[in-house]
TrEMBL record:
Superkingdom of origin organism: Bacteria
Any one GO molecular-function label of the UniProt entry: heme binding
Classification of source organism: Bacteria, Pseudomonadati, Gemmatimonadota, Gemmatimonadia, Gemmatimonadales
Signal peptide: 1-23
Entry protein name: Cytochrome c domain-containing protein
Domain Cytochrome c: 41-135
Keywords: Heme, Iron, Metal-binding, Signal
């Protein structure tokens, strides 16, 4: 009896491993996992930096988009591929030169580190956290 129970357990386990792998992967992709950097305090600081400072000028209030910059409050990206926190952070650090634009009619390059805002690393993380929330609701 004991060995039969053990065998059926093993079979169930094996079935889950092989058959269940795809389903598990799909579930992970659909679920939004909040990165550890996206804390309420970081988002609040990022909100004020974004919406009082230079980002809003080009991306519109709350990232709704404007003539000078793409929408950040959806999941369609011009420059990013996945919209991950790391990608968002990297592009805020580097900016986007005009020769890399997807929409060539946009008038100005996106400045590195917010240009005149000259964001330090803490501020970069905060703005990234805020921007991440715009597309992960
Ligand atoms: C001078 C205008 C300007 C400013 C200021 C600016 N951006 Fe941008 N941003 C752009 C342009 C233009 C692009 C790329 C558009 C393209 O590829 O056609 C871009 C791209 C992005 C992207 C990638 C969007 C995508 O669809 O892939 C993110 C994220 C972003 N900016 C965040 C920010 C943040 C945060 C700030 C403030 C620290 C900021 N930007 C300041 C103009 C600006």
């Amino acid at each position: 009896m004991r060995s039969l129970a053990a065998l059926s357990l093993l079979l169930v386990f094996a079935a889950c491993r092989s058959g269940g792998a795809g389903a598990t992967g799909a579930g992970t992709a659909a679920k939004i996992v909040t990165p550890p950097e996206v804390t309420p305090a970081a988002v609040a600081l990022g909100d004020s930096l974004f919406n009082n400072g230079g980002c809003m000028r080009c991306h519109g209030a709350k990232g709704v988009g404007a003539a000078n910059g793409p929408v950040l409050a959806d999941t369609q990206w011009d420059q990013l591929t996945t919209g991950s926190f790391e990608e968002i952070r990297a592009i805020i650090v580097s900016g986007v030169p005009k020769d890399k634009f997807k929409v060539a009619s946009r008038p100005n390059a996106m400045p590195a580190r917010g240009g005149r805002m000259n964001l330090n690393d803490t501020q970069i993380t905060a703005v990234s956290a805020y921007v991440w929330t715009l597309s992960h609701k």
